[in-house]
Amino acid sequence: MAELNQELIEQMRKINLILKIAFKEELNEAFKDVKSDPVSKEILERLAIKEDSSANLKKEIADKLSISEKTVERRLIELVERGLLIQTSSGKTFKYKSLRLI
User: Fold this and answer.
1) Chain-centre distance for alpha carbon 86
2) 65-69 contacts at long range (C-beta below 8 A, 24 or more positions apart)
3) Tens digit of each residue's pLDDT (9 = 90 or more) over 16-28
4) CB-based burial of residue 1 (10 Å sphere; 0-12 exposed, 13-18 middle, 19+ buried)?
5) Are strands 52-53 and 85-90 parallel, antiparallel or unpaired?
6) 64-91 per-position pLDDT tens digit
7) Pick from 76, 71, 75, 78: which is nearest to 95 by CA?
8) Does pTM surpass 0.90?
9) d(CA 20, CA 102)
């Protein structure tokens, strides 16, 4: 069963890559506002490496960009709503993971 799951994951990665290549221009156009926003850009860059908790993300990004944690929280919500991040519950906080679409 684990072998089948791993094979399925690899096939899905290939499909994802093909779609990204095929729709590169459309994805870039659809998300150019996200790429031009420093807060969203920082969130996506950090989450491209590994998933992280909302508390950690909000504090570190707010400190780095000299903005409020509430601003970071709003961007996290926007990125989830736009389908660029996955939000999961982890106790009393949330964790975020990038779908790496852009």
Assistant:
1) 7
2) 65/38, 65/39, 67/39
3) 888 888 988 887 8
4) exposed
5) unpaired
6) 999 999 999 999 999 999 888 989 887 7
7) 76
8) no
9) 8
Both structure tokens of 24: 């590169």
Nearest to 84 by CA among 100, 95, 96: 100
> What are the structure tokens assigned to 95, written together?
């964790």
Q: Any bridge partners for residue 52, and if so which?
A: 96
How many CB atoms neighbour CB 56 within 10 A?
A: 13
Letter string b/e over residues 5-16, b meaning 16 or more CB atoms within 10 A of that residue's CB:
eeeeeeeeeeee
Q: Which two tokens stand for residue 31?
A: 């998300």
- Residue (of 17, 82, 88) closest to 51 by Cα position: 88
